[in-house]
Each structure stands twice: as structure tokens, then as C-alpha cells.
Specification:
Elements (H helix, E strand, L loop, with lengths): L8 H9 L21 H11 L22 H20 L11 H9 L11 H27 L6 H11 L5 H4 L14 H13 L115 H6 L8 E3 L8 H7 L5 E3 L18 E5 L6 H10 L5 E5 L4 H9 L6 E5 L5 H6 L4 E4 L11 H22 L4 E4 L4 H14 L8 E3 L2 H15 L11 E3 L6 E3 L12 H12 L1 H8 L8 H18 L5 E8 L6 H8 L3 E9 L2 E5 L8 H26 L5
Parallel strand pairs: 3-4, 3-6, 4-5, 6-7, 7-8
Antiparallel strand pairs: 1-2, 9-10, 11-12, 12-13
Helix pairs in contact: 2-3, 4-5, 5-6, 11-19, 14-15, 15-21, 16-17
GO cellular component, one term: cytosol
Keywords: NAD, Oxidoreductase, Tricarboxylic acid cycle
Subunit structure: Homodimer.
């Protein structure tokens, strides 16, 4: 942290020793902070004009999104302002007791609620802090929008950013026992409050919530570790230390209640882990090679009138519309109508539909957890650019009970970091020493392999292949010896060659099960979904099902847009460019990263998505189909495709079951003339790649 740009830790300690408050006088490299320039944002503008750029490291936690949605000089202005706010809060320089808000009136209003047992002396001060930050943030953003866009409106993201800061001063936890239902005098919710109170008396010890302050719970929602779960203790603590409310004991029985969302989690683009499959097999089944499963050969035929509107009222996804799957009910969260603290919900939901489906927050299908079997997952190559975000996603999954990380470096640190996350999976990290591979792999149910090294300057593709092929070979040997029954997901490139390498190693060890060996090609599907959605204007790419077949590199990747569900109309002048973008999307990422990296995050997402599908199938969920690179002769329906393609390995939609690959769906035979030309090119490239992988094991290169 550069002491010339902001006050360092040493300076702050020295500052606390001085009785006089710090002044922003422009001396010692500090920017001049002069409120005379027009209030907070005027002062910030003057600071930004001096070229002061705050260190982004100062913004952590709730402050991390201070510049969300802003760029250029306006981003700098807002950054600068909040850097000053953080500094003032840390040094207690600002006396909020002199705040202009009517604190006495605030306290009087608080006491008006008969259910409030006690009020901390600092509660009004904290409320004033929160109000000041909330109002100032909105004022800043309104000014910035007016300057940048010539408009004077605030967007939902602006309000959410302000809430994210002000919510850290949530005084309600200190003054209102939220577990007690209340007939608030300032609202019309008395009848519901009385009912809640009656229910509470009938169920001693039950966790209750103040009516109107939070959305109603739903039994299928994820556990809530938030503030709505606080309960009253016999000696409820009224003394508050510092800025934040005291900790309270959580009721173990309270977990399982829904997370109380302050705003739409999609605002910051967070991943919601939908339980949505890509290709349906229930109801209308896809054809098998004999045609027995689909005598009319209607797979891929789209009936515009066949779309289904589920309980939530939103258009059905492909899987719902064509499979007739029993999706969990979409429980909705009604908008709040009460005043006071619930204003934050009303602000953010006012521009939304009347009800928000539960899927907006989290989808947790109970039928995916029917099996009581404990699941151990292993990430081999967990410290790399793909391995770390992949491990994070797996750690957050409720389908995993134990997560073992293995790599040649850094895994103990990565595992320790992940172990602090409040999710069920127990996390351990292993290095090669002390039989680390054996310890990591033993008892594994699923092994995901993103291991490998990136291409370095002066390194040929053959050099890179030899190194990564050797890494995969050794890891697969470890799986064969210590986890022979595990599902194996190979991410390490080139997948067209590394999967055949894995198959040969397993064959030689007598442990080859073609139904449990997969090459992860999901990223190609994800890209096809995303790019097509951009063209046709589909807001949610995962509502599209697009089969991508062949291999996992360049021209071996063949998207079959004619079999997309629902059907899509790609303009002829955009088709070639779209196909090329799906095939060479990785180059787009490398170029955007200036050669300093590749598609690590999107690949981690794709790897997790496929692993999640495998685990859902293991847990008993049926009707899961995902494209993946498999050994054709070992899976039902594969022989017919092998005759057409002339290859033993091929990526195609595969139905997954508890034992792995259940059957392959033939989409190749339905390709149109344009797609058949692409497939012919793919077949040639695949044969070369596959032979190269097999040769590496049969005749290994000299070390």
C-alpha cells in the first residue's frame, strides 16, 4: 500500500496518538480534501483532478463494489471519496454525534414499538452513519450519472451499491429481537403479526421474524446464515462495542430457513449455480441408434406451440418444455410494503415483477440429494489457474462432503483458504511428498484433472504436449491404483489426446471403465449458448440447448445450431463467424489477456458444471444429458456413431446415470450439409489427435 497515495497503517497508528484530527491539507503527498469545493462529491472531484488514484486494496469486503458500473474519471472520483470515508471511519475522525439528522426523534420512534426491549445508546448513531453513507452514495452517483449520461435517474445497481455499504451499520439487530413477531404500530400488518405470534406460542423455541421485515421463508430454500437467524438470549446483550452490533448465538434449528436477500444477487453478476440440464430425455426421448427409443425420429424437432409455462409464469427452459421434468416449485418472494428498514427491499423490487422466483436466488432440487452416500471429490492440479476457481465452486457445492486438493505446489495453502468457507465439504490439501497422491485419491468418487502447464515462450506445441501428457499419464496411474472406481473428468489439454492417454493407462492397469472416463468439453457448449444468446437477444443463455460435437480444439469443435432447442435462426452472414468464434473462443481470451493467461475462469465454470451433472446423476437424478468426449465402443449407442465418424473417441450428448455414461445420443446423422462439411474436417483432426495420445503410451518418448 503506497503511503504517498493514502494513509498507511503506520501513519494511522501515529495519527491515533495525536489529539488533533488529521487535516487534508495537501502536505506530505496527501491530496487536498476541501469540502468548500461543493460538499463531498465536490471535494472528491477536486481530489481526482489532482491525479490522486487510491489503492484498490483499501476497498475490501462491503467496500469492494464502490465503483461498480463506473469507468474513467467518474470511477476515480468515487474511489477517491470512499478512500477518504474508509480512512475517517478507521480513525474515528468524524463525530457522528454532531450529525444533522434528528437523532432524538429517531430514538423516540424506535421506542414507539412495544416489542423493543432495549436500545443501545449507540444505535441512533449507527443509524445516522448508515443513513449518511446511503444518502451520500446515492447523491454521488446521481451527480456522476448526470455528468456522464446527461440524465438524473438512479439505477438498481446504484441503490444496491449504497445498500451494500449502509447495511454494515444495520442497527436493527441491536434494538429489535427479530425472532419475535411484532404488530408494528406504523404498519398495517397487525393481523399477520398476531398470527405469527400465535404460531410461535404453539411451537415453543421456534425462530420467529418480525412481520414485514423479511420475505416469508420457504422450505426448499438454502440455509440462512444471515442476520435473520439471530435469536434472543436470556441475557440479551445491550452493550455495543465499536461500530458493529454484538454477536448473538445462532439456534441450530434455525438453519434451513431461506437466505434473506437484500437485493437481486444477479446485480454483481454472481453465479447462481442453476440445476438446469441441457438436453432432456424425459417425456420426449432422444433417438437411440436403433430408433427404438424414438421411432418418429423427432429429436431436435421444435414445435413453437409446445412451449410450457411453469408455475412461476416464466417461459419454460428447453429441458422443462421438452422433457416434462418435474421441476421444483418456483416459490416467490412478495414485494414488501412496509416502511422503515424494509424500504431497501421496496427500492430494489419496485422495478421488478410482483414476485421474484426462488430460482433467482438459488435452486436446490431435493431430488438431487436422494442418495445418502457421502461423496469425495478430488481436484488434481488444484493450485493452477483453473484448479483454484474450480476448487472454490466444488467447495460451495452441497453435493460434496469431502474435497481433496492435489498439486505439486501450494495445495495446503489453497485448502486452508477454502476450508474457511461455511459449506459442508471438508477440505484437505496434499503435495507429492509423504504419499500425498495416494492420500488424496484414496476413496475418491470423482477425480477432476485440470493439471498441466501453460505454453511458455520458445516452447513448441510438441514440447507442451509431452509435458502435459506425462502429467496426465502419471495422475491417471494414481487414480488406477488408489481410486479405480472413481469417475474421471479430464480437463487437461489437449483433451482430444489426453483422454485417449487416460484410457490406455487404465487399460494397461486393468481398471478401464469407459462409462466413467470423460473429456470435459462443456466450455464449447457454454460458449455456443452465450454467443447465440447475444445474437438472438436471449437474456438467459442457459435456456438454450445447443449440441456441440467432435472434439475440444479448433476445427474439431462442431456446433450443430440446426438442432438447438428451442430452434434458433442464425443469419447466414453471421454463421461462419459464429462457428469460428465457438471453435477458437480460447484465442479470444488469450488475446484479451495480452498473452498473460488463457480461459481459466470460464473453464473452471464449465468443469464444475459437468462435475455437478455427474454428481446429480450419482445422487439419483434422472434425465441428465451433457455433451462430453467419451470412448464410443464402451457406451450404448457409441458403435453406430463410431461407424459414421471413423473414430473411437468423440464428443456427443451423453445421458448420465448412477454408473456413468448411460447412452450416447446420435445427433451427427441429422446434421445438415453445412454441418457435415465441418464434421468431415473434424474427423480428420480427431483421428490425428487420438493416435498421438495412444502412441504416447504405447511408445513413450525418451525422458
Amino acid at each position: 500500500m503506497d503511503p504517498t497515495n493514502l494513509q498507511g497503517h503506520g501513519q494511522q497508528q501515529k495519527l491515533r496518538q495525536n489529539s488533533a484530527p488529521r487535516r487534508y491539507d495537501g502536505q506530505n503527498g496527501n491530496p487536498l480534501y476541501d469540502p468548500a469545493n461543493g460538499g463531498h462529491y465536490g471535494a472528491s472531484a477536486s481530489i481526482a483532478a489532482q491525479g490522486h488514484a487510491p489503492d484498490p486494496q483499501v476497498f475490501t469486503g462491503q467496500w469492494a463494489n464502490v465503483n461498480q458500473g463506473l469507468t474513467g474519471q467518474y470511477r476515480d472520483i468515487l474511489n477517491t471519496y470512499w478512500q477518504q470515508q474508509v480512512t475517517k471511519l478507521e480513525t474515528d475522525e468524524h463525530d457522528y454525534k454532531l450529525h444533522q439528522l434528528p437523532l432524538a426523534r429517531i430514538k423516540k420512534v424506535m421506542k414507539a414499538d412495544p416489542e423493543v426491549k432495549m436500545i443501545s445508546a449507540e444505535a441512533p448513531i449507527l443509524f445516522a452513519k448508515g443513513c449518511d453513507i446511503f444518502i451520500t452514495e446515492l447523491t454521488m452517483r446521481a451527480w456522476i450519472h448526470a455528468e456522464e449520461n446527461k440524465r438524473r435517474t438512479l439505477q438498481r445497481s446504484d441503490i444496491a451499491s449504497a445498500l451494500a455499504k449502509s447495511d454494515m451499520f444495520d442497527f436493527l439487530i441491536d434494538i429489535v429481537p427479530r425472532e419475535e413477531a411484532s404488530s408494528h404500530k406504523r404498519s398495517g400488518g397487525q393481523s399477520s403479526a398476531a398470527q405469527a405470534s400465535a404460531n410461535a406460542q404453539a411451537q415453543p423455541g421456534a425462530v420467529q421474524q418480525q412481520t414485514g421485515m423479511h420475505p416469508p421463508p420457504h422450505p426448499m430454500a438454502p440455509p440462512d446464515y444471515g442476520m435473520a437467524q439471530h435469536i434472543q438470549e436470556p441475557d440479551y446483550r445491550a452493550q455495543q462495542q465499536g461500530m458493529f452490533a454484538p454477536a448473538v448465538q445462532n439456534d441450530p434449528g434455525a438453519y434451513g430457513q431461506p437466505t434473506q436477500q437484500m437485493f437481486d444477487p444477479s446485480i454483481y453478476g454472481g453465479y447462481q449455480m442453476p440445476q438446469q440440464q441441457m438436453y432432456s430425455v424425459g417425456g420426449q426421448r432422444a433417438p437411440d441408434p436403433t430408433g427404438a427409443g424414438d421411432p418418429s425420429h423427432t429429436y431436435g424437432a421444435h414445435d413453437p406451440g409446445a412451449r410450457i409455462i411453469p408455475k412461476s409464469g416464466r417461459p419454460a427452459s428447453f429441458a422443462e418444455a421438452f422433457a416434462g421434468l418435474d421441476e421444483p416449485s418456483m416459490t416467490c418472494l412478495p414485494r414488501q410494503s412496509r416502511s422503515g428498514s424494509t424500504l431497501r427491499l421496496q427500492f430494489l423490487h419496485s422495478s421488478c415483477p410482483k414476485h421474484l422466483p426462488l430460482s433467482t436466488l438459488h435452486r436446490n432440487s431435493p431430488h438431487t440429494l436422494t442418495s445418502g452416500k457421502m461423496v469425495k471429490a478430488v481436484v488434481a492440479g488444484a493450485s493452477g489457474g483453473i484448479g483454484q476457481p474450480l476448487s472454490l465452486l466444488l467447495k460451495a457445492s452441497p453435493l460434496i462432503d469431502e474435497l481433496a486438493l492435489y498439486d505439486v505446489v501450494n495445495t495446503p495453502g489453497v485448502a486452508t483458504d477454502l476450508s474457511h468457507i461455511s459449506s459442508p465439504a471438508k477440505t484437505t490439501g496434499y503435495l507429492p511428498k509423504d504419499d500425498g497422491m495416494k492420500k488424496a485419491f484414496t476413496g475418491a468418487d470423482i477425480v477432476v484433472i485440470p493439471a498441466g502447464i501453460p505454453r511458455k515462450p520458445g516452447m513448441t506445441r510438441d514440447d507442451l504436449f509431452k509435458i502435459n501428457a506425462g502429467i496426465v499419464r502419471d495422475l491417471i496411474q494414481g487414480v488406477a491404483e488408489n481410486a479405480p472406481d472413481a469417475f474421471i473428468l479430464v480437463i487437461s489439454n489437449p483433451v482430444n489426446s489426453t483422454v485417449p492417454i487416460a484410457a490406455e493407462v487404465l487399460k494397461r492397469a486393468g481398471k478401464f471403465n469407459p462409462k466413467k472416463l470423460f473429456g470435459v468439453t462443456t466450455l464449447d457448449v457454454v460458449r455456443a449458448q452465450t454467443f447465440v444468446a447475444d445474437i438472438i437477444g436471449e437474456k438467459n443463455p442457459q435456456n438454450l440447448a445447443i449440441p456441440v460435437v467432435g472434439g475440444h480444439s479448433g476445427e474439431t469443435i462442431v456446433p450443430l445450431f440446426t438442432q438447438a432447442q428451442p430452434s434458433v435462426n442464425i443469419p447466414a452472414d453471421k454463421l461462419d463467424a459464429l462457428v469460428n468464434r465457438v471453435q477458437f473462443g480460447g484465442d479470444e481470451v488469450v488475446k484479451a489477456k495480452d498473452g498473460a493467461g488463457s480461459a481459466t475462469l470460464s473453464m473452471a465454470f464449465a468443469g464444475f458444471r459437468f462435475a455437478e451433472k455427474i454428481l446429480q446423476a450419482v445422487k439419483g437424478q434422472s434425465g441428465i444429458i451433457e455433451p462430453t468426449f467419451v470412448y464410443l465402443p464402451g457406451v450404448e449407442g457409441g458403435d453406430a456413431i463410431a461407424k459414421v465418424t471413423g473414430t473411437e473417441f468423440f464428443a456427443a450428448p451423453v445421458e448420465l446415470g448412477p454408473d456413468g455414461a448411460k447412452r450416447i445420443i446420435d445427433v451427427v446423422s441429422k446434421a445438415n450439409d453445412y454441418e457435415k462439411k465441418l464434421l468431415e474436417v473434424a474427423y480428420k483432426g480427431l483421428k490425428t489427435n487420438i493416435d498421438k495420445g495412444v502412441e504416447f503410451v504405447v511408445n513413450p518418448p525418451p525422458k
